[in-house]
Design a protein that fits this description.
The complex is a heterotrimer of chains A (187), B (824) and C (653).
Chain A (H helix, E strand, L loop, with lengths): L1 E2 L2 H15 L2 H7 L13 E6 L2 E6 H7 L7 E4 L1 E6 L5 E3 L4 H7 L3 E4 L1 H8 L4 E2 L3 E5 L7 E6 L4 E7 L3 H6 L5 E8 L2 H4 L5
Parallel strand pairs in A: 7-10
Antiparallel strand pairs in A: 1-2, 2-3, 3-5, 5-6, 7-9, 8-12, 10-11, 11-12
Chain B lengths: L1 H9 L1 H4 L8 H17 L4 H30 L3 H11 L11 H17 L5 H31 L4 H7 L6 H33 L7 H10 L3 H18 L10 H5 L4 H29 L1 H17 L6 H10 L6 H16 L7 H16 L7 H4 L7 H13 L4 H6 L2 H27 L12 H35 L16 H11 L5 H15 L1 H6 L11 H17 L6 E2 L1 H13 L7 H13 L6 H17 L2 H17 L13 H4 L24 H6 L5 H12 L14 H15 L1 H8 L1 H8 L1 H7 L3 H27 L5 H10 L10
Chain C lengths: L1 H24 L3 H24 L5 H34 L11 H18 L4 H17 L3 H11 L9 H9 L4 H16 L1 H4 L6 H16 L3 H10 L2 H12 L4 E5 L6 H10 L2 E5 L7 E7 L7 H4 L3 E3 L5 H7 L6 E4 L6 H9 L5 E5 L4 H12 L5 E4 L6 H5 L6 E5 L13 H5 L2 H21 L9 E6 L8 H10 L2 E4 L7 E2 L3 E2 L2 E2 L8 E3 L1 H4 L4 E8 L11 H13 L1 H16 L2 H79 L1
Parallel strand pairs in C: 5-6, 5-8, 6-7, 8-9
Antiparallel strand pairs in C: 1-3, 1-4, 2-3, 9-15, 10-15, 11-14, 12-13, 14-15
The chains are: A alpha+beta (187), B mainly alpha (824), C alpha/beta (653).
Chain lengths: 187, 824, 653
């Protein structure tokens, strides 16, 4: 387990920023509530076995006496480095993203399942969408009852969505909570 | 007709006295004098009757002068007085002024009426002013031109002297002489004008030449004469200008042989046109001079309104637009009303003028960098698009190729227009027929075909929105630069910081249907920036005149929502940022300063009307509104409570705020603790807290509010209540702000600064509200977190069937939050 | 026709006992006993006959001779049976008594099989098929098993006999006759239920027990060892209930994740999805029990979003016993698949820190996946052997430890059948050894001086005493820890004396949970408080005991439990409490007996065991063909049970 180096940090932050915008500041600066101390300090990012974890500093302190090979995970895993060396957000980061999301999309109940099977979000399945989404933004996908279902990349801006036909793709699927069932091992 | 009028006119002087008895005396002595003059000039019949006419008007003039003299002596500027009259004046109507003759008659009548009650009519307003100024000129005239008048009219001397025999003093005599000479002079020119006018009207073709003479008279240096001239010319032109546009014959046409009549008409038209041109030029020149400003503009306006189809209308339009936001109220109103009427009845000029006017105004706004009077933008409100779009639909039916153009205008509009489009078209047909039959309404001949119209339509639209956008952008920049540079010295302009913003927002709200979807994004961004504007400079505490007021920002949010709402059925868009703004604005709201109505309205539209809120946001708003309800007058708090009720009824999950249930903090996502000062509702973690405010509000001195609070706090979490409250925040606000007067006298003062007065008015509220909200909030909050833990433990014990007396008592005492009936 | 007559004769055969009883039946009970005692030889001899003169006609003729006698014997039998029913009435009270006469003929059928399959192998084929379709009939009758049961009790007391060695061997040779097996089990249970009244003289208990073990083993498919230990632990009647309960599935239960939602909201959502559920029980605020559902309950969006966890009711218990506090340091020594860990995290509201340890690498995936799905952020997942943890995390370093020890899983037989056969005595020993090491490790982890904590909760899903009480007792001996109440107001107190073992009396503070009592998996929970960081137990017991109570009462959670212990009788909840009371008495009067049994057959018990150990092996090949038929019979039985179980909740709610 080690802190991220310079460009790793930038990469991770860029990914996060696409989803949470300026709330990234909050993510980094929020006081953490994990940890036994009364003042657990902040959150920090740690790299362990090419996975990036978002974890309270006090947990990091206490994880130090666990040998690297025996340490499986700590805090929240937000993403991992692929063999190609590129960084991907994993579905496990959903909680953080959903809490701070800048761009949201709500799905009609009918289209929830199709998204949970890894399909893109179509205009037809769109229940609601935040304005001022531009293509390429990170979008967090919710169900109509505000259950976070996953996240993806906006394919169309909010404006274009109006003219889009029902089968047009609005959000490109990146990750969804269905993966907890579909491929638990990749997580 | 000239003859007939003559016969009548000999008699009038005797007839008149009964009308206005108190004027009789002076009228009578003048009468003598005039009679003598008449004897001199008896042979000219026409002269007689004109003078008779002048007699009357002169007599009137005198009387009115004195009235105004008194008034002037009372309050220095008669301008206000005029304006005060002007205000009541309704836009000029052309009808009463048929002929000079008729006009005169009309004046007599209306002048009496004017003296009686203050309702007047543009026409004789002109005259009144002329004569006011004329009085000034008389005084000046005395000294200046005594000599030349003397030698010019030496033949009048004898009568004069003979007349003034009984007055021995030379000085007085001189005075009177000059007086009379000036008077005389004026009379002459007036008579001349009247005469010429009469002739023209009686037979334009015959004596079209006399136009020139009249113009000549207008060259006179005596302002009064000039004005009279202008006005009479106005009347003349309004009457004789044909219902078609005159095209001067080309050389070729000129040399080719034509019949006598044609030559005659050609000549007539050309002269008319020349004269008209000259007249306009004169007007436009004069319009620049302060003295003539009003008259000139009035002429221009009347002309443009009467004959918008005729040549040189562009020049008219230009000059009008130049004055559209003149500091002079009268002028401004004139111009605005004119342009308004231009927009509202396009039939006359077939819409081209609308386009031009809008263009011109746009440029004007641009030129003046948006520092104009609101009126200048408000005129846009009277532009009509529906009829045009109805047309376009008809075309869509047969020609497909205009699809793309239609895309640019949005579909909902067309749909709604669709159904009444049929009857519209019928009405157009009928109007067209009528137009052809009635020659006075010439619009039809210039009616361009539909494609033309649509082009103009789009032009107009783009111009309008360009203007709006410019205004928005300008406001934005002004805010931007003013917020970074501390000095507010960059002049706010004569019309306050953002004169055009309000009408601009209104316009946007009105024309949102026509707004092209492509612009929607930019519009939203602008509104967003504006709405969020002063949150930038909040951290820098300096009060900045350039910053938008809370109400203005609320308006921005409202417009944004209206725009969205009107296109909402396509896509349900969640205007997060505006909610954030509203969330913060609620804190910035100050009862005295900002209009509660706007707030109530935004509560209604943004919170109550929105179909679907996400839980976090709704909870945050509920919490904040409850806090808000604590610290303002009953009107505000009532509207707030109504909104809270609505929210709670709509999303059940938020009712968890009503119960002191453990786990709220963790349920509220990553934020474990409620942050009262969070700027983003989604990050406030409101679900971690409870609505303790309701408990206090139940003790509110106002019965209605306390009952409301109790009903709210009794609202249990079971799904049962699905009914929605009928009353809207606006209604609530209205009712209670009305009731404030009736309810308690001290409410008024309380309204101004709420807390202390409020406290005095109610003991319960006092002990709470003396403390400032922040500390109170914190204190109660931690108190409640503790209590929640206690409650939690107590629950566990209850499950183990073990009552703990002490804790129970504490809990009982401290919180009465309803527990969920259904033990899920 | 022939069949009918045969049938008659068979009936006659079986009726012979009543005949020669008939004379004495009018006389005194002792005579009846004598008659009983005489009966076996008669029976035997008849079999000898049948064996000797297998092919010969005369055998039939002899039958016919007997036939006449049988005519009047019937009434006699009736009278006798009436008498018996009266006589029985005192000991086992059943209201079916008036019906006795009507059931007589039914009872005839009951008896035939004895005869029938006795000679089924020997006598000519037609008899076999007769007996077979008689069997069919009885299968049908098994549906109303209980009435039959009573009838048999009423009917057969007189002539029921343990099968002899020979019979057993024959039975072993032929395909097993499930009904007869079941009936014999009932019989034996009845007899054992009050042995001193019903024991036939000359028989001793252990034969019955042995027979019962054998029958249960073959009928339900338990291996020798397991059934043996069960019999030692439970009174026979209860044992039957337990075993039957093992055949049923437990209802699916889910736990609301209070980190993300509340039970009420979750219930609403699921109800809208067509899930039919109820609050789990009054002792849980977060549990829901799912009866049936249109959607896969493990794949709803809410499940995927971590709003709830599929979790057996029993696994709530250790966490509730642990009662973690916010901002504490916790260790879950065997965390996978994370049901308990996430529950702990939810109770701590993601504060403090949880070391979630899991030894088995393949289970780590699901563990961390579940943690993330449930939104748990205060956990460090590590992969150690639990015994190393004190070295890794440091001794006396945490506030509470949850040790859900790996175990034989004898409590969750209903979940996995294999346990019935797979687990052997030395498996249990291995587990017990591991568990002892683990619990010492757990104790070493805990800091006795922790302000809020200092507790260890030990739990297994096994009902073996050697995996539970024995382990705790060991811990009490090895470390300075005391048992404290679990804070669970139900469940049965643990054994503090079992067979030859004598445990620390405070062991009755531990809790046992049984399928047949609490309708949840067999489970064991014990909560320990670490008194000092010393490595050896404190010398004095009682003062510490009291001191601990005092200390506990300072900590208000446990104060709750402590007081609650005191007031327990008053607030005892109906059935479970009552049962546990009676259970205790049972234990009291049972243990000595079971012990003396041990005394009696300890040595030969082992012999028989290894005797039996190879016995099944050599029978394997012969039995192989009917093994599966047993299996399927058991299957359909279980199905029936499950259906009935399905109904019950419906009209419960």
């Amino acid at each position: 387990m080690r802190p991220l180096d310079e460009n790793e940090t930038t990469v991770v932050f860029e990914k996060l920023f696409k989803f949470v915008g300026n709330n990234l500041k909050k993510i980094v600066e929020n006081p953490s509530n994990e940890g036994p101390e009364t003042e657990p300090g902040r959150y920090c990012f740690r790299l362990q076995k090419n996975r990036v974890y978002y974890v309270s500093e006090s947990l990091v302190k206490r994880a130090t006496n666990i040998s690297r090979k025996n340490l499986v995970s700590l805090g929240t895993c937000i993403g991992k480095y692929t063999h190609a060396g590129s960084f991907h957000l994993t579905i496990m980061s959903l909680n953080i993203l959903a809490a701070n999301a800048k761009h949201k999309v709500w799905l009609k109940p009918t289209s929830e399942m199709s998204f949970l099977y890894g399909n893109h979000v179509l205009k037809g399945g769109l229940g609601r969408i935040t304005d001022s989404i531009v293509p390429g933004d990170g979008v967090v996908v919710f169900s109509m009852s505000d259950v976070p279902l996953g996240f993806g990349i906006a394919a169309k801006s909010t404006q274009d969505c109006r003219k889009l036909d029902p089968n047009g793709i609005v959000v490109l699927h990146q990750a969804d909570i269905g993966e907890y069932l579909r491929d638990e091992d990749e997580l | 007709m000239g003859k007939s009028s003559r016969k009548q006119k000999v008699i009038p002087p005797p007839l008149l006295p009964p009308d206005v008895p108190e004027e009789d005396i002076e009228f009578s002595d003048e009468d003598l004098k005039f009679v003598q003059e008449n004897t001199d000039y008896a042979r000219f019949v026409s002269r007689i009757d004109t003078t008779a006419i002048n007699k009357q008007c002169g007599g009137r003039v005198k009387s009115v002068e004195e009235k105004y003299e008194e008034e002037r002596s009372k309050k220095k500027t008669h301008q206000e007085e005029n304006e005060s009259n002007e205000i009541l004046v309704d836009p000029v109507d052309v009808l009463p002024v048929k002929t000079l003759d008729g006009k005169l008659h009309f004046r007599t009548v209306t002048k009496k009426s004017k003296l009686a009650e203050a309702d007047t009519d543009e026409a004789e307003q002109d005259i009144l002013e002329d004569e006011n100024i004329l009085n000034k000129s008389q005084r000046r005239a005395k000294a200046k031109k005594s000599k030349k008048e003397a030698k010019k009219q030496e033949k009048e001397w004898p009568e004069e002297i003979a007349l003034e025999e009984e007055t021995p003093q030379a000085a007085v005599l001189a005075e009177v002489k000059e007086e009379l000479s000036a008077e005389e002079m004026f009379e002459n020119s007036k008579n001349k004008l009247a005469e010429l006018g009469m002739e023209l009207l009686s037979d334009p073709e015959a004596n079209i030449k006399s136009l020139k003479e009249m113009l000549e008279i207008c060259k006179d240096e005596d302002t009064k004469i000039v004005k009279l001239g202008l006005l009479s010319l106005l009347a003349v032109f309004k009457d004789i200008i044909p219902g078609y546009r005159i095209r001067l014959p080309t050389e070729k046409e000129l040399e080719m042989k034509v019949s006598k009549e044609v030559k005659k008409t050609r000549f007539y038209e050309s002269t008319l046109l020349k004269a008209y041109k000259a007249y306009l030029q004169k007007l436009i020149i004069l319009e620049k001079l302060p003295v003539y400003n009003q008259v000139a503009t009035r002429c221009i306006c009347t002309l443009l309104e009467a004959v918008p189809h005729f040549n040189y209308r562009d020049n008219l339009l230009i000059s009008i637009v130049r004055n559209i936001s003149s500091p002079d109220e009268v002028v401004r109103r004139l111009c605005c009303s004119t342009i308004g009427s231009l927009f509202s009845n396009e039939g006359k000029h077939g819409g081209e003028l609308t386009v031009q006017a809008v263009r011109l105004i746009a440029d004007h706004v641009k030129a003046h960098n948006c520092q104009l009077h609101p009126n200048s933008i408000e005129v846009f409100m009277s532009i009509r698009f529906d009829e045009d779009i109805g047309r376009r639909d008809k075309e869509d039916a047969n020609k497909k190729k205009y699809k793309k153009n239609n895309k640019r205008n949005n579909q909902e509009e067309q749909n709604q227009v669709q159904e009444n489009e049929r009857k519209k078209s019928k009405r157009e047909m009928m109007s067209k027929i009528r137009d052809e039959v009635t020659a006075d309404h010439m619009g039809v001949t210039y009616e361009p075909d539909a494609i033309e119209r649509r082009k103009m339509q789009t032009e107009t639209l783009s111009a309008v929105f360009e203007t709006y956008f410019r205004i928005l952008r300008n406001t934005m920049y002004s805010i931007g630069e003013s917020s970074e540079e501390a000095n507010t010295t960059s002049n706010p302009g004569a019309f306050g910081s953002h004169p055009l913003l309000a009408p601009c927002l209104d316009g946007l709200a009105k024309f949102t249907q026509q707004l092209d979807l492509d612009y929607m994004g930019d519009l939203m961004n602008y509104l967003k920036k504006l709405a969020s504007s002063s949150s930038v400079s909040n951290n820098t505490k300096q009060k900045n005149s350039k910053l938008l007021t809370v109400s203005e920002r609320l308006r921005c949010c409202l417009v944004a929502f209206r725009v969205m709402r009107s296109n909402l059925n396509a896509l349900n868009v969640d205007l997060q940022d505006f909610f954030v703004q509203l969330y913060n604005l609620i804190l910035e709201y100050r009862p005295g300063r900002d209009s509660g109505i706007v707030l109530a309205e935004s509560l209604k539209i943004m919170l109550c009307d929105d179909r679907h809120q996400d839980m976090q946001k709704a909870a945050a708003f509920v919490k904040r509104l409850a806090t808000f309800a604590l610290c303002f007058g009953c009107a505000e708090s009532m509207s707030a409570l109504v909104t809270v009720k609505n929210l709670l009824q709509k999303n059940v999950k938020c009712r968890n705020l009503l119960e002191n249930d453990a786990g709220g903090g963790s349920v509220s996502g990553s934020i474990a603790k409620y942050q009262p000062y969070a700027t983003d509702p989604n990050l406030s973690g409101a679900l971690a807290t409870v609505l303790w405010e309701l408990k206090i509000l139940t003790k509110h001195y106002h019965p209605a509010i306390s009952t409301m609070a109790t009903t709210l706090s009794n609202m249990n979490t079971s799904q049962s209540q699905t009914f929605l409250s009928a009353v809207t925040p606006q209604q609530a606000f209205a009712d209670f702000s009305l009731e404030k007067e009736s309810f308690e006298p001290k409410n008024e003062s309380r309204k101004l600064n709420n807390k202390r007065k409020r406290g005095s008015s109610s003991e319960e509220a006092q002990n709470v509200l003396e403390i400032d909200m922040g500390r109170l909030n914190k204190k109660l909050k931690e108190n409640f977190t503790i209590l929640r833990d206690i409650k939690e433990d107590e629950r566990e014990r209850m499950e183990k069937k073990k009552p703990l007396k002490k804790l129970n008592n504490v809990v009982k005492k401290k919180l009465k939050n309803p527990k969920s009936k259904k033990k899920f | 026709m022939a069949a009918l007559t045969r049938n008659k004769k068979k009936g006659a055969n079986s009726q012979t006992p009543p005949l020669n009883k008939q004379t004495k039946s009018h006389t005194t009970p002792p005579l009846k006993k004598a008659a009983k005692s005489q009966k076996p030889p008669l029976k035997k001899q008849r079999k000898f006959i049948s064996e000797e003169k297998l092919p010969e006609k005369p055998e039939v003729s002899t039958d016919e001779e007997e036939e006449e006698e049988n005519e009047q014997s019937d009434e006699g039998s009736e009278l006798g049976s009436d008498l018996f029913s009266d006589s029985d009435e005192e000991e086992n009270d059943d209201d079916a008594e008036p019906l006795a006469d009507d059931f007589l003929d039914g009872s005839d059928d009951e008896e035939r099989p004895l005869g029938s399959d006795l000679d089924s192998d020997s006598v000519e084929p037609d008899i076999e098929e007769i007996s077979r379709d008689i069997d069919e009939k009885r299968k049908r009758e098994e549906q109303d098993a209980d009435d039959d049961f009573k009838i048999n009790i009423k009917e057969q007391p007189a002539e029921f006999q343990l099968p002899t060695q020979k019979e057993l061997e024959e039975e072993a040779r032929g395909p097993p006759d499930l009904p007869s097996l079941q009936m014999r089990i009932r019989e034996i249970v009845r007899v054992l239920s009050n042995f001193k009244d019903l024991r036939p003289n000359g028989t001793n208990r252990k034969d019955y027990v042995e027979q019962l073990k054998a029958d249960l083993g073959s009928y339900y498919g338990y291996n020798e060892f397991l059934i043996g230990t069960l019999i030692e632990m439970f009174h026979v009647v209860e044992l039957m209930e337990l075993i039957e309960a093992f055949e049923k599935k437990r209802p699916t239960s889910i736990r609301t994740n209070t980190l993300k939602t509340r039970r009420r909201d979750l219930a609403d959502v699921l109800l809208n999805r067509g899930v039919n559920l109820d609050p789990l029980s009054k002792w849980s605020k977060v549990g829901l029990v799912v009866y049936d559902s249109q959607v896969p309950i493990g794949a709803t969006p809410e499940y995927l979003a971590g709003y709830y966890m599929l979790q057996s009711a029993s696994s709530f218990l250790p966490v509730m016993a642990l009662a973690p506090r916010e901002n504490e340091r916790l260790v879950d020594m065997a965390a996978a698949p994370g049901g308990k860990t996430t529950y702990v995290a939810a109770l701590m509201k993601n504060t403090g820190i949880i070391y979630a340890n899991e030894m088995k690498v393949p289970r780590l995936k699901s563990l961390s996946a579940n943690l993330h799905r449930m939104g748990v952020t205060n956990t460090i997942v590590c992969n150690y052997d639990g015994r190393e943890l004190p070295k890794v995390l440091g001794q006396n370093s945490v506030d509470r430890v949850l040790l859900d020890a790996p175990c034989s899983g004898t409590g969750v037989i209903s979940k996995d059948e294999s346990v019935k056969t797979s687990k052997s005595a030395d498996d249990i020993k291995k587990f017990a050894h591991l568990q002892k090491q683990l619990i010492l490790g757990a104790i070493d982890l805990v800091d006795a001086n922790s302000k809020t904590g200092g507790y260890i909760v030990y739990s297994t899903c096994s009902i073996m005493v050697s995996e539970n009480e024995a382990v705790i007792d060991y811990a009490l001996k090895k470390r300075d820890v005391k048992l404290v109440p679990c804070g669970l107001d139900f469940g049965q107190p643990g054994f503090f004396r079992f067979s030859e073992h004598r445990f620390h009396p405070s062991l009755e503070k531990t809790r046992r949970f049984y399928p047949h009592v609490h309708n949840m998996d067999g489970f064991f929970v014990a909560k320990l408080k670490k008194m000092s960081n010393a490595m050896q137990p404190s010398a004095t017991d009682e003062p510490v005991e009291t001191m601990e109570q005092a200390q506990v009462s300072s900590d208000d959670d446990d104060e709750a439990e402590a007081i609650e212990q005191l007031v327990k009788p008053s607030v005892a909840n109906g059935q479970s409490k009552g049962e546990s009371n009676t259970k205790e008495n049972k234990n009291e009067q049972k243990f000595p007996r079971s012990k003396e049994i041990h005394k009696g057959k300890r040595n030969k018990n082992t012999i028989t065991k290894n005797g039996n150990a190879e016995e099944p092996r050599k029978q394997k090949k012969t039995r192989s063909q009917w093994k599966n038929e047993i299996a399927q019979a058991r299957e359909e039985k279980r199905k029936a049970k499950r259906e009935s179980a399905k109904e019950t909740p419906k009209h419960m709610r």
